[in-house]
Amino acid sequence: MPKAIHIINGPNLNLLGTREPEIYGSQTLADIETLCRDAAPQANITFKQSNIEGELVDFIQEAGRDADVIIINPAAYTHTSVALYDALKAVGIPAIEIHLSQPAARESFRRRSFVSEAAVGTISGFGAESYLLGLQAALNLAKASG
């Protein structure tokens, strides 16, 4: 049975490709989705994005019913959202936090992640490849869990 992986993307990631390409790269979110689907054709990937915190919570809850693993790029909500932390803890499936940039090397307010405290691991700083590394880790976790 194909492994179900939900890839959840937070605010402003819909602007990838044009938003600060020196930090986030020139690939669009659609480009990254295609990379993920091409890299794991055997997986059942659900790919979503929202700028609204409550919708992201809904996506996490949906993943808790349907997915083996969550990959989440919470973007700016990384540093502020107890709601995402609570949702990830509540659903009871592994979550992998990813970032295109390296938050620890940026502004000091970006060094705290509420989400990482609910994740099994964090991958950051590799641009679009962070998604592929996260996807490989998700496939490994899903395989290990049965």
UniProtKB/TrEMBL annotation:
The reaction(s) catalysed by this protein are: 3-dehydroquinate = 3-dehydroshikimate + H2O
Please name the InterPro entries in this protein's record.
Answer: DHquinase_II (IPR001874), DHquinase_II_CS (IPR018509), DHquinase_II_sf (IPR036441)
**Gene3D superfamilies reported in the protein's UniProt record:** Dehydroquinase, class II
Where are the catalytic residues? Y24, H99
Record's PROSITE patterns? DEHYDROQUINASE_II
The annotated pathway is: Metabolic intermediate biosynthesis; chorismate biosynthesis; chorismate from D-erythrose 4-phosphate and phosphoenolpyruvate: step 3/7
Which residue positions hold the site described Transition state stabilizer?
A: R19
Alphabetical list of SUPFAM superfamilies matching this protein: Type II 3-dehydroquinate dehydratase
Which UniProt key words apply to this protein?
A: Amino-acid biosynthesis, Aromatic amino acid biosynthesis, Lyase
Q: Which family does it belong to?
A: Belongs to the type-II 3-dehydroquinase family.
Against PANTHER family, the record matches this protein to: CATABOLIC 3-DEHYDROQUINASE
- Quaternary context: Homododecamer.
For this entry, the protein name equals 3-dehydroquinate dehydratase
Species of origin: Algimonas ampicilliniresistens
